[in-house]
Amino acid sequence: MTPPTARLLRRALAVTAAALAATLPFAGSAAAFPLVGHAHRTVTTADGETFHLRLTAKSTLLPAAGGTVDVRGKGYNRAQGVFLAFCPVPEGVEVGDPSTYTRLPTGCLGGRESTDGSARRITDQGTGTPGVTLPYEKGGRFTTTLNLRPEIADGVVCDMTVRCAIVTRADFTATDVRLYDQYIPVHFAPAGKG
Q: Whole-structure pTM over 0.85, yes or no?
């Protein structure tokens, strides 16, 4: 006869294993791709001001058809507007190494005039498209969502033809400034798994 403690322990292990199997549906993907993405860097502007930029996105592993991602930023320079978008990672950019952030992230989902929720402009200028242009909050913060899908344009498909990431970059008032570039990679489950 098995002691009651051993039986309870076996049942608890079985329940835990079942719960893990249910929460990790993408065999191996959850370990390879974090569900919450982070990017951070410290930048100093030409006039000597220092900013500690932090960007967080949840979730970074989406179903095959796409989904909505919660995005938060803080520490941004309120004097400089940024675009928050979903873009191909430019050739030569190594995510996590700002010294390689020398090319403009462009060709983004929805384009600059996006009204489908795939991009935002964060600025204190007070001008822009309602629902797309958002003001900074105290401390250079912002909180919003992005609606993402794997096909950015005809023939440009995340995880197939390009690497894709949620990106911040200086808005059209400073297109050539790379100080505000940040990348959080996003992946999509293979078809039939999401």
A: no
The total number of residues shown for the chain amounts to 194
Check if the beta carbon of residue 37 is closer than 8 Å to that of residue 54.
Answer: no
Report CA-CA distances (Å) from 89 to 12, 34, 95.
44, 18, 8
> CA–CA separation, 88 vs 156, rounded Å?
8
Q: How far apart are alpha carbons 116 and 131 in whole angstroms? A: 10
Tens digit of pLDDT for each residue in 11-68? 443 433 333 333 333 333 444 567 999 999 999 999 999 999 999 999 999 999 999 9
User: Pairing between strand 61-62 and 187-188?
Assistant: parallel
d(CA 140, CA 126): 15
The Cα–Cα gap between 80 and 172 comes to 10
Name the pairing type of β-strands 151-153 and 156-157.
Answer: antiparallel
